[in-house]
Amino acid sequence: MSISRRRFAQSLLLSAGSTAFHAGRAADAPTNVLFVTVDQMRGDCMGTVGHPNVRTPNLDRMAREGMLFRNGFASGPVCVPTRKSCFSGQDPHEHGSLTNRDGDKLAWKGSMLEHFARRGYQTAWVGKNHTFTDEALAELDYADIRDREPFRAYNGFVPPHWHSAVYWPEEDCYPHINTESAIKFLGQAGSDPFFLHVSYFDPHPPYMAPARYASRYDSSDMVMPERTDPAALSARLGRYARAMGFGELDREDLAETMRYYYAQVEWGVDRPLGRLLGALEANGLAENTIVILTADHGDFMGDYGMVRKGMFLYDALLHVPLLWWAPGRIPAGARTDALAQSADLFPTLAELTGGERPEDASGESVAESVLGAAPGRPALFTSAAYGDLAPDVLPPNLAPDDEDGVPRHTQVLRPTMEPSHRTKMVRTQEWKYIQNETEPPELYRLADARPRERANLAGSSEHAEIRRTLEQQLSAWWPW
After folding, report:
1. What percent of the chain has pLDDT over 90?
2. Which of 76, 81, 78, 139 is nearest to 107 (CA)?
């Protein structure tokens, strides 16, 4: 009797051995994967980690019933490098995208999608791409790709500090549409295992949420981070902050932007997540599905008096949510300080689902940390690139002022995305060391956790030995 390619692949999967994750599971039930990525969400922006303003009941539930990584980090400070790291298991300088403006999109072969398809999984993708070629996406069993709502274009309707109420009906907005599409797939998935990636655009700027969510937050209630001069970290950050006009942001402006950001997290991230978890339960899939949620990068959102992102390797942009949920298999309510980053997700999911380690991945499996049984890796490494701004760039008026109507903040961001110079970072639980090709090195002690990097200790003789150690590790990892 002949069997299908998918059934044959399943038989190979089930004969490959198991980890503690598979103990007691039915032999004919490979583990489904629901991988949720959100865009530009900070790792501290959840109620479950003590954020004083944001409301995230479904993220909190996921943490309460699963594993929360307190030290989850993106592999890059912007979208494309991190997303490619998630699906290739490689660091940015290995897969070739050090900013959003260089490198090719991923091919199917060797990717996480191909890995699961080869093992007999249905592969599905809903929402934002920014990762794979069109040829690769054509290999999917189910694809419903979209980027951002047209009304979010950077136009005159969005005020200078990038926040506004959503003026479309919620059912016409992509948080709802993407979630409906994912639920449709879950309802028709059938008996074959699946790998479903749901990629949300929120809370990427412009920071927008429907009035019924924005009204739950009051600007006067916003807890503001300690103000630190960006130039105290690096001259490059100081130039960027000046060019973007962040020095003109007073407390009221910043608080108003923050309240829209948190409302957008609740509307565009937390509520859709709750609906996805509910769909798994309604379709009888929750007990045999592992759910992971993370973000491609963070947001300054008040740190150093700044908002948005940039080509910088600070925790505000690299620290992201990292939640794992699999009822009965991942310990409920577990939390770990283990270090993990985007390039680790591919090898980790491969191991947790009984597959072989991806051949070309340089990321490390943190499967034992997901199960609460290991401290994780001793250090994280990040590679990126940047373009320098001229020292005399003047603060913009933050209005659409070029001939194409492109806002000045976009005009400032674009040249900084050029891969003209390299930057890299090593981070341990206590220390961070950054090298830039055009700037002096930076050393930060992180023993007091957040607030973020405050004082550059690279020139301190007291910390010369730790600097040398981290410098050697960084040079061995990516020599230049």
Report:
1. 78
2. 139
Residue 184 or residue 403, greater confidence:
184
pTM reported for the whole predicted model: 0.93
Per-residue tokens: 477: 């990892």
CB atoms within 10 A of CB 9: 20
What gap in Å lies between CA 434 and CA 257, rounded to an integer? 29
Q: So what's the pLDDT on residue 52?
A: 96
Q: What is the pLDDT of residues 356-383, one digit of tens each?
A: 999 999 999 999 999 998 787 899 999 9
Q: In what order do the strands lie in the sheet with 439-445?
A: 380-386, 421-427, 431-436, 439-445
The CATH architecture of the domain made up of 12-377 is 3-Layer(aba) Sandwich (3.40)
Instruction: For residue 295, list its beta bridge partners.
Output: 38
User: Residues 235-260: what's their mean pLDDT?
Assistant: 91
Decide: residue 211, CB within 10 A, 0-12 exposed, 13-18 middle, 19+ buried: exposed
Q: Is 376 left (phi over 0), alpha (psi -120 to 50) or beta?
A: left
Give the sheet arrangement for strand 122-127, strand by strand.
142-145, 122-127, 194-199, 32-38, 289-295, 322-325, 67-73, 334-341
Q: How far is CA 398 from CA 227, 241, 301, 306, in A?
A: 22, 13, 17, 14
Cis peptide before 451 (omega within 30 of 0): yes
| 230: its two tokens | 């960006």
